[in-house]
Amino acid sequence: MSIAIVESLKNLKFKHKIFLILAILFILIINLGFLNISSVLNIQTDTQKIADSLIPRLIHTSAVKDNINLSILAAYDYVQNGDKDSKAQYKTYIKKAVGAEVKLFKASSSEADFEFTTLFETQINDIYASLEDLIRAFETGESPEQLQNQLQNVSAKRDVFANFLNEQIEQKTQDSSLQERLQTQKRVQQTIAIVIGIGILTLVTLIFIYIFTNRTITKPLEKLTKVARSITAGKYQVVDIDNNDELGVFAETFNTMIQKMRAVQESLQIELAKTKQLDKQKSEFLSIAAHELRTPISGMKWLLDMTVAGDFGKIDTDAKEQLQKGIENINRMVVIINNLLEVAEIEAEQLQYKFEKINLKKLVKDLADHFEHAAAARKIKLKVLLEKIPNITIPADISKLFIALSNIVDNALKYTPENGVVTITAEQDVNEIMIKVADTGLGIPLEEQARVFSKLYRGSNVEALNQIGSGLGLYIAYQIIRKHEGDITFVSAPKQGTTFTVSLPLE
């Protein structure tokens, strides 16, 4: 039976589970509220009952006491002055005392009350008898000594009565207070017992709610969260949730999505393997092609250089100019071939680095000397601020770093119009050195700046300068600088030039 109930609860819709939990908590709160109100009302009722029974008795007792005292005073006045009105007052007060005593008797509700009333009546009768004896002695003309004796007797009876009342009233007050405390204690104990019972019921209910929510809500959510996190790590595993609620439907949909993602991932892995294989084959082809092209092109360049130098005979000026253009094109081909070889080695991770301490100022000077002729030929001012360059050493592979910086400077010269300026400088920071190459060239379009260091990138605004390039120079420079644990950044704006910054660690 209990298993069937648990299964039926487990199959509830998610919103119904939440509603059930809230309903149970609401019922518990209402019951606790009613319990508190009921306990307070019961204590108030018991206290009121005790007060209702005690206060009237105290009032009636006080009335009897007052009337007795007044009757004694009236009798004294009658004996002393012989005033008939005093005797009449005496009779009136005695009747009132008896009437109050009757009311006290009627207000009695327990055996102790009746016992008190009986003793009270005896005391009143004793006082009444002594007063009657006093009046009789006065009216019969007894001697002053006998009247004095009667007066003393009345006074003694009055004192006994007063002591009796004080003792009884104090006792009654204590008894009533004790009774009130006992009733309150009893109610408190009953309330505590009920609270403990409700507390146990609440604890059991909360345990049930915890187990219920843990099994049907928390654990499924934890499973989903765990699987979702594993996806970020590339693990596409399904989640095991057999709920029939919204979580179950979500888990089923989630598993379907994971299975599709797994299939897509496997397909991507296959395609990636194919792509890597094609890249490898391409790199191998480029390396082989570049090597095969380098030898004949070197031979062609050697022959053209010898021809221009007149080693094979004198040539006219026009022929010499045409041969010179041929040499320039061959030089461009050599640069492209070298770039292809370097890219192939980078992608195959075969580019070897040999780090050593190199002088920064000498490196920049060699760089400026290398491009001095090219800058002059293009009518561009190559400005090198050697005096601002720190005379320090940095760890680097000098040949690779020279290639990277050469590609940046060559790029600046290519895309700076005539009469432009290319500036090379360096600054030392706390932990790094920053080499800057700034030009006044075309700048790089904003929408293309994210692709500057990718392979085969050439700006869309360079056609106007009619410059030939492979689109590999900055890619090679970026890879080399990264191998030096450095960084290469730039700022550029169209028609305002570009500044490249190469940051290298000092140690």
TrEMBL record:
PROSITE patterns: HAMP (PS50885), HIS_KIN (PS50109). It is found in: Membrane. InterPro entries: HAMP_dom, HATPase_C_sf, HATPase_dom, His_kinase_dom, HisK_dim/P_dom, HisK_dim/P_sf, Sensor_HK_Regulatory, Sig_transdc_His_kin-like_C. Residues 288-507 form the Histidine kinase domain. Its EC number is 2.7.13.3. It catalyses: ATP + protein L-histidine = ADP + protein N-phospho-L-histidine. It is an enzyme of class 2 (transferase). It comes from the Bacteria. One of its GO terms (cellular component) is membrane. Keywords: Kinase, Membrane, Phosphoprotein, Transferase, Transmembrane, Transmembrane helix, Two-component regulatory system. The keyword Phosphoprotein applies. The chain crosses the membrane at residues 18-41, 191-212. The keyword DNA repair does not apply. CDD domains: HAMP, HATPase, HisKA. Residues 215-266 form the HAMP domain. Gene3D superfamilies: 1.10.287.130, 6.10.340.10, Histidine kinase-like ATPase, C-terminal domain. One of its GO terms (molecular function) is phosphorelay sensor kinase activity. This is histidine kinase. It comes from Candidatus Kerfeldbacteria bacterium RIFOXYB2_FULL_38_14. The lineage of its organism: Bacteria, Candidatus Kerfeldiibacteriota.
